[in-house]
Design a protein that fits this description.
CATH class: Alpha Beta
Number of domains: 1
Order of helices and strands: HHEHEHHEEHEEE
Distance between the termini: 35 Å
Number of strands: 7
CATH architecture: 3-Layer(aba) Sandwich
Oligomer: single chain
CATH topology: Rossmann fold
Strand content: 15-25%
Structural class: alpha/beta
Helix content: 25-40%
Length: about 260
């Protein structure tokens, strides 16, 4: 195990905690600029989705989406009818990759608070007859979405929705209140030194959900993956705290991507 993986950010001193919080926000701003820039470039093509590998981290999205799909099918063997992605941004690669390669018949509702981000995202999928039919983009804060959340079989929560603990927990509590019992919540977290780039989601943060598994990658992909099921009631499950990482491959290299980058 690398020494960086042994870092427990909860035990760092107050000054380092403050530095970490600023770094996460800086990372979020930088990632937003990067996605805006490449979304604009891709939209200049006649068929933007044929050029997704122009984005420098596209291969990582392929790997992460493959992993998330593998974990999802392990716990949810039925193909979901409706999927929500919260925090889709101007370059909604996760939704695009999942809808194109893995969940090929489902409807995807993408939520983002930024109207410009949604405008850019719509430009990317508008030229594709299938995705433009199955994908919609909603400009709203997810906190303002209530009963519509009951329609989704699976909800994905982007890593940078809620960039500190309080913000993240507020969103999770809202989802717990309105998602249907048994619906799946997939979150991106971070582990070890990677927690200096992205917020950490602990099992105890998932009040109203039963944590099913947690996976921490050890390669170039930064985000951990957490999957949970909405509990029959909003009471926190008592058996989720002792949960350890699920027994999945320790490296993405052992997971075969269904679609290589060159075919896009």
């Amino acid at each position: 195990m690398h020494s960086a993986e042994l870092i427990d950010v909860t035990k760092l001193c107050k000054d380092i905690q403050g530095m970490r919080s600023k770094l996460i926000r800086l990372c979020g701003v930088a990632e937003g600029h990067l996605e805006n820039h490449f979304s604009t470039i891709l939209a200049s093509y006649e068929n933007p989705l044929h050029h997704l590998d122009d984005f420098p981290y596209y291969a990582n999205y392929l790997k992460l989406s493959q992993l998330e799909f593998d974990i999802l099918t392990k716990h949810c063997p039925n193909v979901p009818n409706k999927v929500a992605f919260v925090g889709s941004g101007p370059l909604p690669l996760t939704s695009i990759v999942l809808a194109t390669f893995h969940i090929k018949t489902s409807v995807f509702d993408n939520y983002d608070i930024d109207p410009l981000a949604n405008s850019k995202a719509i430009q990317l999928v508008s030229s594709d007859p299938d995705l433009s039919r199955r994908m919609t983009f909603h400009t709203t804060d997810i906190i303002n979405v209530t009963h519509a959340l009951k329609e989704y079989d699976v909800v994905f929560l982007a890593a940078l929705v809620g960039m500190d603990k309080d913000e993240k927990v507020k969103v999770i509590d809202h989802l717990a209140k309105y998602m249907s019992p048994g619906a799946i919540l997939m979150l991106r977290s971070a582990h070890g030194a990677r927690a200096f780039l992205y917020p950490v989601v602990d099992p105890c943060d998932l009040r109203g959900f039963d944590v099913l598994s947690i996976f921490h990658p050890t390669d170039e992909v930064i985000n951990s993956v957490v999957i949970a099921s909405k509990s029959p009631s909003n009471k926190q499950s008592t058996d989720q705290h002792p949960l350890g990482p699920t027994k999945l491959p320790t490296s993405f290299s052992t997971l075969k991507c269904l679609i290589p980058c060159s075919t896009m």
